[in-house]
């Protein structure tokens, strides 16, 4: 860990050491080269306010640990799914090449359809998606009973059931991934400095460069990238970008249960609802524990369990009459009132578990009240963008690009596409520097592209 004694000058400063910031540090270090001598020696700093990488949403206790690729995600249309797939391939090439057993677990991932309506939707989806996803197949109750016995045990035999299963199920420890990306980045770029315990307090543009005030002195850079989760939007607004945007901060809780599933079992998305249904999967940290979740609960906090971040939340323009009107419109338009209320109830002592049991039983019909335990002190927060001009929720990725600056607030689907987003931001940085650097596409494709995956 380094301490900044005086004003430090860099080509690029990345703020945030979660999976987004560390993936960018890696891609910039490994694949963006100097046009003069093809070296990788850009001066980069990564500033992280915590004492290590990935302590917030990228921590394995705080997210669902899934590598999404669009195949079984019923909330994605085909075009979006195929974009996500490119990102998933890059991530999987990276983790597989590391040979670190703790980094990921390979499993199956499925979407379970229960009832005639869901079965029909999943079958239709399979028809449409299977030409693009060689790893998916449709299975009926018999095969489901072999693959996931507890999903079929005790189920009403008259109820139609099927599942679309992917053999490419990956559970990833995104904290380990962040640490690995940083180690690899430092190995190829000796000019990468990582500063932990350094919190950016303010940012301004002065004399054509960016000046970042921190608790540890002043940092200066030609280009800046905020990969600071919800805080990225606050800093963007400090520089005059994204002033028409607010955040709906949606916390996700998890429940624990004994070993019940062998792979990731997702439920079908409710049509028109902007939030995904709960799923069950083995914890990447302990395969003998099944996690159910995440739930969906709006909270006025920038970071989960950090109550002091409420005071930053109220600096956002969502805390205004216009913001309140937008939130009311979103809740009414998407019919979210009952859904949000139910999700709030799940956190209540004693009765919360009782109501959540009904959700969990769609996946595991025989699960009992005593099997479920709410996980305390864990779970992250998804910052969802609210457009205050239109009063609409903007789902998916939100990146603001300004003059030599990038702000990533809601990478989507989050951690799964971190390397693809790192590539996208690195390409933008190459443009900022107008010819000084180039992106080495050939090496990137060789290491992390679809060609590499097909060779396997
Ligand atoms: C419940 C839940 C389940 C999810 N499940 C999945 C899943 O299964 N698969 C998936 O792909 N994605 C999932 N996601 C999304 C995923 O977790 C996030 O998109 C991803 O972790 C975001 O990474 P990040 O680096 O952008 O943000 P974070 O991991 O939150 O990192 C931001 C970093 O910025 C730092 N920071 C903030 N402000 C400052 C400052 N002022 N100065 C210095 N540093 C600062 C923070 O300390 C933090 O380390 C889930 C999210 C939630 C909440």
From TrEMBL:
<keyword id="KW-0285">Flavoprotein</keyword>
<feature type="transmembrane region" description="Helical">
    <location>
        <begin position="12"/>
        <end position="32"/>
    </location>
</feature>
<keyword id="KW-1133">Transmembrane helix</keyword>
<keyword id="KW-0812">Transmembrane</keyword>
<feature type="domain" description="FAD dependent oxidoreductase">
    <location>
        <begin position="11"/>
        <end position="257"/>
    </location>
</feature>
<keyword id="KW-0274">FAD</keyword>
<dbReference type="InterPro" id="IPR036188">
    <property type="entry name" value="FAD/NAD-bd_sf"/>
</dbReference>
<comment type="similarity">
    <text>Belongs to the L2HGDH family.</text>
</comment>
<dbReference type="GO" id="GO:0047545">
    <property type="term" value="F:(S)-2-hydroxyglutarate dehydrogenase activity"/>
</dbReference>
<keyword id="KW-0560">Oxidoreductase</keyword>
<dbReference type="GO" id="GO:0005737">
    <property type="term" value="C:cytoplasm"/>
</dbReference>
<keyword id="KW-0472">Membrane</keyword>
<dbReference type="Pfam" id="PF01266">
    <property type="entry name" value="DAO"/>
</dbReference>
<dbReference type="InterPro" id="IPR006076">
    <property type="entry name" value="FAD-dep_OxRdtase"/>
</dbReference>
<protein>
    <recommendedName>
        <fullName>FAD dependent oxidoreductase domain-containing protein</fullName>
    </recommendedName>
</protein>
């Amino acid at each position: 860990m380094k301490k900044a004694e005086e004003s430090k000058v860099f080509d690029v400063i990345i703020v945030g050491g979660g999976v987004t910031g560390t993936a960018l540090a890696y891609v910039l270090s490994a694949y963006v080269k100097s046009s003069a001598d093809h070296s990788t020696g850009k001066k980069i700093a990564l500033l992280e306010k915590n004492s290590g990488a990935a302590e917030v949403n990228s921590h394995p206790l705080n997210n669902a640990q899934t590598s999404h690729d669009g195949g079984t995600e019923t909330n994605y249309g085909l075009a979006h799914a195929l974009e996500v797939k490119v990102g998933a391939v890059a991530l999987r090439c990276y983790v597989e090449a590391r040979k670190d057993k703790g980094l990921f677990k390979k499993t199956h991932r499925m979407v379970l359809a229960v009832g005639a309506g869901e079965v029909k939707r999943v079958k239709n989806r399979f028809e449409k998606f299977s030409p693009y996803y060689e790893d998916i197949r449709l299975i009926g109750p018999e095969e489901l009973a072999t693959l996931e016995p507890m999903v079929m045990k005790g189920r009403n035999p008259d109820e139609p059931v099927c599942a679309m299963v992917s053999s490419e199920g990956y559970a990833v420890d995104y904290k380990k991934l962040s640490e690995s990306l940083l180690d690899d980045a430092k190995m190829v770029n000796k000019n990468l400095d990582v500063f932990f315990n350094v919190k950016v307090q303010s940012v301004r543009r002065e004399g054509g460069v960016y000046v970042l005030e921190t608790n540890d002195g002043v940092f200066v850079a030609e280009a800046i990238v905020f990969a600071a989760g919800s805080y990225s939007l606050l800093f963007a607004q400090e520089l005059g970008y994204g002033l028409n945007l607010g955040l709906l901060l949606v916390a996700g809780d998890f429940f624990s249960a004994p070993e019940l599933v062998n792979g990731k079992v997702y439920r079908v998305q409710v049509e028109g609802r902007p939030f995904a249904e709960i799923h069950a999967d083995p914890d990447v940290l302990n395969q003998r524990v099944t996690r159910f979740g995440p739930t969906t609960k709006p909270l006025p906090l920038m970071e989960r369990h950090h109550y002091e971040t409420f005071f930053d939340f109220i600096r956002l323009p969502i805390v205004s009459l216009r913001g309140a009107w937008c939130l009311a419109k979103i809740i009414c338009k998407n019919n979210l009132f009952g859904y949000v209320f139910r999700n709030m109830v799940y956190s209540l002592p004693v009765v919360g578990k009782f109501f959540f049991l009904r959700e969990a039983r769609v996946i595991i019909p025989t699960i009992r009240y005593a099997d479920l335990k709410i996980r305390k002190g864990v779970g992250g927060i998804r910052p969802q963008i609210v457009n205050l001009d239109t009063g609409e929720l903007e789902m998916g990725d939100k990146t603001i690009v300004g003059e030599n600056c990038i702000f990533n607030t809601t990478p989507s689907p989050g951690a799964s596409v971190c390397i693809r987003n790192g590539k996208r931001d690195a390409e933008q940085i190459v443009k900022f520097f107008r010819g000084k650097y180039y992106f080495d596409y050939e090496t990137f494709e060789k290491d992390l592209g679809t060609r590499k995956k097909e060779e396997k």
